[in-house]
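Pilot study result, target chain (451 residues):
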Amino acid sequence: MSIEILIVDDNSDIRNILNDLIEDAGYKTRLAANYNQALNEIDKKMPDVAILDVKLDKGDNDGIQLLTHIKSKNNDVPVIMISGHANIEMAVNSLKHGAFEFVEKPFDKTRLLNFISRAVENLSLKTQNKEYENKLFSSYELIGDSKNIINIKDQIEKISITESRIFINGPSGSGKELIARKIHKNSKRKNKPFVIINGALLDNDKYDLELFGEEKNDGSISYGALEKANKGTLLVDQVSEIPLAIQSKILRVLTDQKFKRVNGNNDINVDVRLICSSSKDLKQEIELGNFREDLFHRLNVFEINIKPLSERISDIPLLIKYFSNKISESYNIKNLEIDENNSYILNHEWHGNVRELRNLIERIAILQPNTQEKISNIIKESLKSGANISRFNENSLSVPLKEAREKFEKEYLSLQLKKFNGNISKTATFVGMERSALHRKLKGLGIKEFN
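Predicted structure:
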């Protein structure tokens, strides 16, 4: 990785000394002599590391303004502040605004090079972590052979090539973000930004700033999610949690394709594909007065519904095998051998959905049990499904044998039917019954068959 360092100082001697020092250390450099030159260099191309003088030509703290500008565009860029008029307050203020280090002039060359080396290492680590996370997440596939998942895969294929706005509905942990990423990855915008904003995680007074950005009194700009996602895709997760006042502003953006930053006077034109998701029923939220109906219709051009994992049990064995392979590869350990028909797994309600299942498998990988019994114990302890089985057994003691047997058969056959995705032939073979006999049994127990 070729590292480029931006040097900003109004003293030409200092600039030249820094330039020679840094180039001799094997890094590329760019130079700026004042505030406007520095701003142009930053906006033209973000440096990997920046060294900024605190006081330039625009005021006492214009270097801090440049620091803030860099951080608003890319918070990962390490910035080293330097000053010949240093005091504790100035150093604290620099660090408070996100500086990596603060150095007094005249500076010790070896010490400064150590700071630069640490800054480069810090940048490299952050870059590697992001690449790893993106690679891991983008490499995940939508796994399952249930009708719901097959239908969603078909929908993704058809709508990815369009520019339609999409609403994804499903419980927490079911894979809404993964679906949104797959749509972006298969779209014409795949090489442009994919930005996520979570409506449930923002303070009420920060929605405007997070979405639209801000023009600050010092002239610096903080970019919001809409600008960051320009030409790409913006996923608004948990859109149901966004206040009504902000909803009306989003509606206006969708109508006009432009907005103003907070404290800004100029219109900002954006070209963003909007995908929204929620674990709540937005139609119900509309009835409760919590969500604008006109905005819902704007967002819901195409709707994708992903069901809870408990309603697509046939996907569980496939997910276990998939995550076992992925996580084993990630941890560089031998493949996990988890019984895909483990009764605790199949009987569990999975309130955390696919995320909960993945976390369970990762927990097993971390603990690295060396026997099936130990794996089973981890599963029992993690899911605590035994409580459900115990309640069933206790209830069974208070009813006649025939009723208890019917109850067991109904729950057992319903579970097997779900496991085989409603396939009567596969279910009959597994439970050891003739197909016609299973039909009669299901009808007698009042179990509804599904195709």
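One observation from the pilot: The longest strand covers residues 273-278. A full batch analysis is planned for the follow-on phase.
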